[in-house]
Specification:
By secondary structure, this protein is mainly alpha-helical. The chain has one domain. The protein is built from seven helices and two strands. The longest helix is centred in the first third of the chain and has 33 residues. It is elongated and about 60 Å long.
Length: 166
């Protein structure tokens, strides 16, 4: 007889996710700032060395945050470094599989549109099921705890997310 691990309730998947997402956001902002600073310094140096011809490449810097989020969401980790550090992972809402490239693009575009409108629309996370933000709803994604996903895989007990046996 084949036993299947029951899908944990939404509470297990999303317990503590909003607060972790906030801290992860600050981690990602700090990493982006370091990346942008390093790129800016290299491009300014290139501009000086090419007697001004390389300064036009500075126009590419605004695309770096978009690429950062898009490539990490569509990549094998399915999470930005900040989310990984805080034990979060981005999954499809319907079957908890990895996000597709199209879903990552939609999520990233709507995320930056939400930030462009003061970011207050991110507060919708407190009233939606599975604590989903607008960019999650638009792209069909959900952010869950990595431990909850591990509890779904063979070899892990259902109750391991809470640190006790079932």
């Amino acid at each position: 007889m084949i036993y299947q691990t029951p899908v944990p309730p939404d509470e297990m998947l999303t317990y503590g996710v909003p607060s972790r997402r906030i801290v992860a956001w600050f981690v990602d902002i700090a990493l982006l700032a370091l990346i942008l600073l390093a790129m800016w310094l290299m491009l300014v140096l290139l501009g000086v060395l090419t007697l001004g011809l390389g300064f036009h490449l500075l126009g590419l810097l605004p695309f770096v945050p978009f690429c950062y989020h898009l490539l990490f969401l569509a990549g094998p980790s399915s999470a930005t470094p900040g989310q990984q550090l805080l034990g979060l992972i981005v999954r499809r809402n319907d079957d908890l599989g990895r996000p597709s490239a199209l879903q990552a693009v939609i999520s990233t575009i709507v995320y930056y549109l939400t930030l462009a409108t003061s970011g207050l629309l991110l507060l919708v996370v407190f009233i939606t099921t599975r604590r989903r933000a607008l960019h999650d709803l638009a792209s069909g994604l959900v952010v869950v705890r990595t431990q909850a996903m591990q509890a779904l895989t063979p070899g892990y007990g259902y109750g391991n997310i809470w640190g006790r046996s079932p």
